[in-house]
């Protein structure tokens, strides 16, 4: 049930992750430590950085899938979809409800492709309502 609610685009696991590439081998212990999901209990954020094609989305989904298997509520979304949803509900006056149910309720929120699109000032305010621009 939680798997469907998480909205993964596909099921990816740690077992399927290919560590044979040189840049992946050097991070193997760090990647395997994510499998414990201890970062969730510590309320820590995880940011996966790297060029296209290195497996960031695979690892994010694998973490999410492990969390679902552990009974943890997860939501997977792309940055573009999240921004579109939040800006739409803000115009409709349903921002707080949607933010609480769709963004804050899951114990693990995975936002993919966050570096692929620029944030407009309106979108930044929708995502970070307390954020103020400073010069």
Automatic annotation (TrEMBL):
Alphabetically ordered keywords of this record: ATP-binding, Nucleotide-binding
IstB-like ATP-binding domain: residues covered: 1-128
CDD domains tied to this protein: AAA (cd00009)
Gene3D superfamilies, alphabetized: P-loop containing nucleotide triphosphate hydrolases
This protein's record includes keyword Nucleotide-binding: yes
One Gene Ontology biological process: DNA replication
Signal peptide (UniProt feature, chain positions): none
Gene Ontology MF terms: ATP binding
UniProt record similarity statement: Belongs to the DnaC family.
The name this protein goes by in its record: Replicative helicase loader DnaC
Organism: Klebsiella pneumoniae
UniProt lineage: Bacteria, Pseudomonadati, Pseudomonadota, Gammaproteobacteria, Enterobacterales
